[in-house]
Amino acid sequence: MLRALLLILSVVAIAHAELCKPDAQNAFKVRISIKTALGDNAYAWDANEEYLFKAMVAFAMRRYSSKSATQISNVLLCNVTDRVSFWFVVTDSSKNVTTVPGSEVEAAIRMNRNRINNAFLLSDKTLQFLKITSTLSPPVDPPTPVWLIVFGVVLCLIVAGIVFLIVSGIQKHKKKNKEPTERENLEEKVEVTLENGIPCEALDLKAGHINGVFAADDDRFTSL
Amino acid sequence: MSQDLSATPEAPKEDGRPKWDNKFQYILSCIGFAVGLGNVWRFPYLCQIHGGGAFLIPYFIALLFEGIPLLHLELALGQCLRKGSIGAWNTISPYLGGVGSWMVSVLVSLYYNTVLTWVMWYFINSFQEPLPWSVCPLNENRTGFNEECYESTAVNYFWYRKTLNITPDIAESGTFRWWLILCLAACWAIVYLCTIRGIETTGKAIYVTAIFPYLVLTIFLIQGLTLPGATEGLIYLFTPNLNTLKNPRVWLDAATQIFFSLSLAFGGLIAFASYNPTKNDCEKDAVTVALVNSMTSLYASIPVFSVLGFKAKTAYWDCLDRNIINIINEFDLPEESIMRQNYTSWISFLNSSYPEKIAGLKLKRCELQEFLDQSVSGTGLAFIVFTQAIILMPGSQAWAILFFIMLFSLGLSSMFGNIEGVFTPLLELQIIHKPAPKELLSGIICLISFLIALCFTLGSGSYWIDIFDRYAASVPLLIIAFFEVIGVVYIYKIKRFSEDVEWMTGRKLNLFWQITWRFISPLLLLIVFMAFVILQMQKPPSYTAWNPKYEGFPMKEEKVYPPWVQAICVLLAALPGMCVPLVALFHLVKQRRRSKEPSFVLPEVSSCQGANSSFSHPKE
């Protein structure tokens, strides 16, 4: 009985070893760079972290295929290096000793990438699944490009400046035009006064209006 | 009543010519005109490739014997004759015909403002987080980055694709780039705003545009010196290598750099000086402006090379880091086992133990010297290299905004001089009727220039700007300056001119000026011109095109200009220069015909003092 059990276990172990090895079918390589991501707050990669990883992969598979069949024991890790990098496969317990197709695993990981990253406080770059490309998030595009707004502001300032200068120029021009016309009117008056040859002030005297000769003779004529 | 040159309100002098508010405004305008983009992106490059500190020797010799004398000549000419370039040349002798320098000013204004358009485009794009030239855009199915961007760099992609949207060949014009048209309109509107009433408005604007760049350069200096790698950059720049002085190319570059840096022969300096009172010490002004220009070049090269050193250091570290990651991933070594410091020892160990694996990794060679050697000048320096360095600095938006405002101010103050060189002669020729205000003439100039400059916003626009820069703004200026010196010294006669200068400055003309004006400067100009033309003729004119389909992409593809483009190059170079002999011929023919008439009198060459005395009485 005991021997049979040992035999089965060893077969399983060998089978598992066969399933999970570098470049095996449906196996994925993972590369983790904890120190790059966290610097001084880096944690050490140990068996507990591996357990968490298996749990996250199992979680991803469950969520993806929505059948609660995948267990933590279905996820096999192997070839863990100091880099920290390792290979993993997901076995299918319903079909004995086979691995879940790589496309399913890939789709499951992709769907839950964010959750897996956050569990380890890492990002897409520091927790790399080497064959699974991540969809890059699109850059935030504001409805109006920012540069157009800045351009609008700049243009408004310029146009305001130009309008101000032109209007002030026109106003100064009008003022200057009024002054010369006023000066011209003054000149005309002076010229009119001069043109007659006789100053107006002189013409205003009684001697101009009334002929002194005839005025003196008023007494000689008899009244009617 | 004396007639004003314009009907706009200005405190008119007896002859109605506008004048500077104060001497400082005039000096600042001349300095602003001389100090331009070339001081920032051409001088440091020349210093670097021509043996660092050793380049200063030919540079200062050229300044002494070519730059300062020619500058003094132009300022004295404008101040004495009190006319723009066309008027001044005609006054010296009708045979000279000043249209050449006016034409060059027009051509340069057209393309120079388009460079400012690019600066403005980068400026308005600097207000985003992250900076648009720091990340590559994604491709259509969002699995990776845009291919063109990925193969070159994000900075290159933003410049060639997002800004210029450049075509792979100069013959392919492409369509109008509407975003550049918007920026071009804004730039010409700014130029109109500042030059709307001639020196009355530029005089106010120059206080900002001439002084602001110095502030920003100082800020960049302080920031630049604190960056890692700055000292390497500066050492690399200034380490003198006296062997380079044996190469005549270095002397030629020094002479041309001084000449173009001082913006001589454009007519702008003559225009500026013509608004001066005649009793003004033009000798001191010339020396001041020339020295300030050269000092600015030196001062600007320090922050530029600190930043370039920083960029080289960062690129070197990136190169090392990439190699380290590749090695760690390949050998599954723990993180941070290989650091930059022990990289070389690790590499030698691994090479000896696993040479095939190392060879398979195809590691790049990382040499700091190589990164420092990547020298760029011109638009490449500002829009590719410097923008890349700015991304690496903390608070990159602020640095980008500061940098591009500084470039814009530098270019704008030079534009004032260019526009003044176009504006003043037109004003004197009275193209439009007198009652029309100055604002109208400047508006017409800006509008026509904007419409013509629209062709630089096409896909091939940047190639055309290179052509204008290389051909319209180089050889014609040398020819015009040469005729200027010959005209003043031998036609106007140096004796009369030295009397005029003595009258203006109040002291006798130094022997130094006599010697340089008579012999040294014309000779130098002739030599430089010949050397320049010979060098240009040595190889067929070619250009480098940005072609994503090229096998060597992201290297630029070297192409030869098609024949029709070469014809335009020759036209641009020859036409302004040909104006002088053509006009001389025209006047000679006219004089021959007129001299047959009995009542003919030879046109007298008016003198500086004589011209001024006729201006002191108002014309009835």
From TrEMBL, chain A:
One term under GO cellular component: brush border membrane
Superkingdom of origin organism: Eukaryota
Signal peptide: 1-17
Transmembrane segments: 146-167
Pfam families per record: Collectrin (PF16959)
Molecular function (Gene Ontology), one example: protein homodimerization activity
Domain Collectrin-like: 24-224
Subcellular location: Cell membrane
Membrane topology: Single-pass type I membrane protein
GO BP annotations listed: calcium-ion regulated exocytosis; insulin secretion involved in cellular response to glucose stimulus; positive regulation of L-proline import across plasma membrane; SNARE complex assembly
InterPro entries linked: Collectrin, Collectrin_dom
UniProt keyword Acyltransferase present: no
Record keywords: Cell membrane, Glycoprotein, Membrane, Phosphoprotein, Signal, Transmembrane, Transmembrane helix
Name of this chain's protein: Collectrin, amino acid transport regulator
Automatic annotation (TrEMBL), chain B:
Signal peptide location: none
One cellular component (GO) term of this entry: brush border membrane
InterPro entries: B0AT3_SLC6sbd (IPR042701), Na/ntran_symport (IPR000175), Neutral_aa_SLC6 (IPR002438), SNS_sf (IPR037272)
GO biological process, one term: renal amino acid absorption
Keywords for the protein's UniProt record, in alphabetical order: Glycoprotein, Membrane, Metal-binding, Sodium, Symport, Transmembrane, Transmembrane helix, Transport
Annotated GO MF terms: metal ion binding; neutral L-amino acid:sodium:chloride symporter activity
Domain of life: Eukaryota
SUPFAM superfamilies attached to this UniProt entry: SNF-like (SSF161070)
Database matches in Pfam families: SNF
Ranges that cross the membrane: 26-44, 56-78, 99-124, 176-194, 206-230, 250-275, 398-419, 440-465, 471-494, 515-535, 564-589
Keyword Calcium part of the UniProt annotation: no
Residues reported to bind Na(+): 32, 34-35, 39, 261, 293, 410, 414
Similarity comment: Belongs to the sodium:neurotransmitter symporter (SNF) (TC 2.A.22) family.
Protein name according to UniProt: Transporter
Species of provenance: Serinus canaria
